[in-house]
Design brief:
The protein contains 4 helices and 5 strands. It has a 5-stranded antiparallel sheet with strand order 4-3-2-1-5. It is an alpha+beta fold and 158 residues long. It has a single domain, classed as Butyryl-CoA Dehydrogenase, subunit A, domain 3 (Up-down Bundle), CATH 1.20.140. A hairpin with a 2-residue loop joins β3 and β4. The chain is elongated and about 70 Å long. α1 runs antiparallel to α4.
Length: 158
Amino acid sequence: MIQRLQSIFLFLASLAMFLVIFLPIWNKTLPETTEEYAVLTALDLTISKGGETVDKIQTFYIAILAFVASALAMGSLFSYKNRLLQMKINLGNTLVMAAVLILSTYFLFQGEKMFSPEVEGQWRLGFFLTPFAMICNSIANRFIRKDEKLVRSADRLR
């Protein structure tokens, strides 16, 4: 049923992964001047110096995988009649979210090396939403498993 507790966690996971597409994942600004900076989003890694874009690396793979993870969470949410399928979808979704996290980290380190390696960048909300979605996904899986055990125990009593 959609009104179960795991539905809330699956919806939160879907929402978090959808927001990853639009929110910045990482940025880096030189402390002495704000004219030199790098910003990583799910669509591109932009390096700017002196107010103009110097380099732009396409990172749309992150956006595609984040959208797939969001769609998988919604698909899992609406496949409540088949709990075993729901758990399999959640497992696949965890792998997709791990790929988003790995790609984000990879491009983050690409941005770190572009200019001033001694200055560290800041992680933004977009980066932290992926682990949040993974936690919500695993909590939802736990509640789905709990429901499945309850149904199986009720079948034994009949």
